[in-house]
Amino acid sequence: MPVQSVDGIPINYVAAGGGTRTLCLVHGSGGSALSWIRQLEGLAEAAHTVALDLPGHGDSGGDGRRKIDDYRLAVWNFLESLGLGRVVLGGHSMGGAVALAFALSHPDRLAGLILVGTGARLRVLPRIFELLESSYPEGCALVVDDMGFARATPQGLRDGARAVMLGTRPQVTIGDFRACDVFDIMDRVEEIRVPTLVICGREDRLTPPKYSRFFANRIPRSRLVVLEETGHYVQLEQPDRVNAEIKSFLATLP
Ligand code: COA
Q1: Does 215 contact ligand 1 (Cβ within 6 A)?
Q2: DSSP type of residue 29
Q3: What is the pLDDT of residue 250?
């Protein structure tokens, strides 16, 4: 996988496809670019698709950040260093918060915004912090196995997502959840004018559909898709539906 030096830190990323349209995808708390593996496979014909490991995650170097805005800056620096101009930016969960912060700071750099299983405010259950801090594997099991997926999701998907979080240093994952816990742009969502696709799972317990409806009601050029029998890891649970929605969305952009 290619590595780009960004401010002296090696940032790992996966890229697929080509063409003039770039889609950049940002993972969630304790995650990695692997959370977009099915989109990298399925969207290569539709766009030059790039998924990065945020600092401190996956195979990237450096440390995790403590604020969403610091991750927003890391993504901006990454895009700058690759010379990627205007992009469609997508994010899952904490990655969605990063994409939202980016949309507020650099609206001119976005052709579109894709929000997957995320929210404008991301308060975190105290129990998640307690378990991640006292027994990291149990904390990961709570987030991924107990709360992350729809009831009917095959165990293999849960195992894969849990393995990624277990492979992330506990302090990085805990820092991510702390960054989410203080993230709140509820009163700024209406400022977002870029075309936006909002996708969530009906059974999402970490960022319930209410959070996505909030976007759809306030972002003028938005489309909301709520997927049945789907939890928080929407893009892993329903890759074909998510890819089809993203392709249709990309086709509507100028
Ligand atoms: N979009 C729309 N509405 C939101 C929202 C969002 N992103 N975030 C919160 N709200 C709403 C809540 O639904 C609630 O509405 P209500 O008063 O009508 O019930 C209100 O704003 C206040 O909610 P919140 O700020 O979350 O505080 P709380 O003390 O009610 O609940 C938690 C705190 C942690 C229990 C709750 O946020 C939760 O269950 N979170 C989901 C689980 C989790 O930990 N997710 C991790 C996300 S990274």
Answers
A1: no
A2: T
A3: 97
